[in-house]
Amino acid sequence: MNYVIIDRGDKLSKELVDRFHELAAARGIARNDEMPDTIISIGGDGTLLKAFHTYEDRIHDVAFIGIHTGHLGFFADWKADEIEELVRMMAESEARIVRYPLAQIELETDEGISTYTCLNEFTLKGLNNMLVAQIDVNDELFEMFRGDGIVVSTPAGSTGYNKSLGGAIIHPSIESLQIAEIASINNRIYRTLGSSLVLPQHHHCDIIPRRDQRLQLTIDQLSITRNDIRSIRCSVATRKVSFARYRPFTFWNRVREAFLGYDVK
C-alpha cells in the first residue's frame, strides 16, 4: 500500500498531515505522491472533492479515505483524533471497498463537446435572467423549464443542494441521477413537474437552453460561465469512485448523524 494526502490547508489539517506521515512511516506504509493507490483527504467534503478531481484520471486504480477536521462530512469516516487508529488498521487489516456512482456531464457549445465527471452535483443557473430551457428525457421532450436553475445530483450528492430543494435522499447503491428544480415558474407556456425526478442508470436527460443566455455551470467545485451552450447531456457515468472502509459506518448512519443527531428516538 502507498498513499498521498490532500489537505484543506488550515493549521489543524497541516498538523494532521505531519502526524499521519510520521505514523505511516513507522508502520511501513509508503508515501507516493505520483502513483498512489490510496488518497487520504484531510479537511471536509470540499477537500475530498478536490482530491477526487485531482486524481480523476486514475479513478479505476485508487480508493479514498476521508478525515474530517470540522463538521462531519458524508465522505469522511474518521475524526482528527482517530488518526492513530486509522493508520493501525491500514497496516494490519484489509479495507472493504465501497463504490459510489458518478454523473457524466457532456457540455455541447459552439466550440464542441466537453465531458466532465461529477461526484456530488451539477448545477445550471441563469446569470442575468432566469434560466429558460427545454428538458428532454431519453431524447423525448419532457418539459419546458423557466426558473432560477436546475440541480442534477448523484446519490452521494443527494444530501446536499438537492435535499434543500425538497429532493429525495438516494442510497449510493442505487445507480441513478436526480433532477431538482430551483424556483420554477409555471404558466401556460412553461410547465414543469414541480418535484424532483430520479433517472436510472440506463436513462439520460438533455438540458437545451434558449440560445444566447449567459449561464453558470457548477460541476462539483468547478465553475464555468458561457453564453454559447447548445445542450447539456446528463447520465450515470460508467466509472465509479471507490472508498476504502476499515470499519462499518453505513450511509443511513451518516444521514442520521448529519441531520438528526444520535439522540433522536
From TrEMBL:
<dbReference type="GO" id="GO:0019674">
    <property type="term" value="P:NAD+ metabolic process"/>
</dbReference>
<feature type="binding site">
    <location>
        <position position="146"/>
    </location>
    <ligand>
        <name>NAD(+)</name>
    </ligand>
</feature>
<keyword id="KW-0067">ATP-binding</keyword>
<keyword id="KW-0521">NADP</keyword>
<feature type="binding site">
    <location>
        <position position="148"/>
    </location>
    <ligand>
        <name>NAD(+)</name>
    </ligand>
</feature>
<feature type="active site" description="Proton acceptor">
    <location>
        <position position="45"/>
    </location>
</feature>
<comment type="similarity">
    <text>Belongs to the NAD kinase family.</text>
</comment>
<dbReference type="Pfam" id="PF20143">
    <property type="entry name" value="NAD_kinase_C"/>
</dbReference>
<dbReference type="GO" id="GO:0005524">
    <property type="term" value="F:ATP binding"/>
</dbReference>
<feature type="binding site">
    <location>
        <begin position="120"/>
        <end position="121"/>
    </location>
    <ligand>
        <name>NAD(+)</name>
    </ligand>
</feature>
<protein>
    <recommendedName>
        <fullName>NAD kinase</fullName>
        <ecNumber>2.7.1.23</ecNumber>
    </recommendedName>
</protein>
<dbReference type="Pfam" id="PF01513">
    <property type="entry name" value="NAD_kinase"/>
</dbReference>
<comment type="function">
    <text>Involved in the regulation of the intracellular balance of NAD and NADP, and is a key enzyme in the biosynthesis of NADP. Catalyzes specifically the phosphorylation on 2'-hydroxyl of the adenosine moiety of NAD to yield NADP.</text>
</comment>
<dbReference type="GO" id="GO:0005737">
    <property type="term" value="C:cytoplasm"/>
</dbReference>
<feature type="binding site">
    <location>
        <begin position="45"/>
        <end position="46"/>
    </location>
    <ligand>
        <name>NAD(+)</name>
    </ligand>
</feature>
<feature type="binding site">
    <location>
        <position position="156"/>
    </location>
    <ligand>
        <name>NAD(+)</name>
    </ligand>
</feature>
<keyword id="KW-0418">Kinase</keyword>
<feature type="binding site">
    <location>
        <position position="50"/>
    </location>
    <ligand>
        <name>NAD(+)</name>
    </ligand>
</feature>
<dbReference type="GO" id="GO:0003951">
    <property type="term" value="F:NAD+ kinase activity"/>
</dbReference>
<dbReference type="InterPro" id="IPR017437">
    <property type="entry name" value="ATP-NAD_kinase_PpnK-typ_C"/>
</dbReference>
<feature type="binding site">
    <location>
        <begin position="159"/>
        <end position="164"/>
    </location>
    <ligand>
        <name>NAD(+)</name>
    </ligand>
</feature>
<dbReference type="GO" id="GO:0046872">
    <property type="term" value="F:metal ion binding"/>
</dbReference>
<dbReference type="InterPro" id="IPR017438">
    <property type="entry name" value="ATP-NAD_kinase_N"/>
</dbReference>
<keyword id="KW-0547">Nucleotide-binding</keyword>
<dbReference type="GO" id="GO:0006741">
    <property type="term" value="P:NADP+ biosynthetic process"/>
</dbReference>
<dbReference type="InterPro" id="IPR002504">
    <property type="entry name" value="NADK"/>
</dbReference>
<keyword id="KW-0963">Cytoplasm</keyword>
<dbReference type="GO" id="GO:0051287">
    <property type="term" value="F:NAD binding"/>
</dbReference>
<feature type="binding site">
    <location>
        <position position="183"/>
    </location>
    <ligand>
        <name>NAD(+)</name>
    </ligand>
</feature>
<dbReference type="InterPro" id="IPR016064">
    <property type="entry name" value="NAD/diacylglycerol_kinase_sf"/>
</dbReference>
<keyword id="KW-0520">NAD</keyword>
<keyword id="KW-0808">Transferase</keyword>
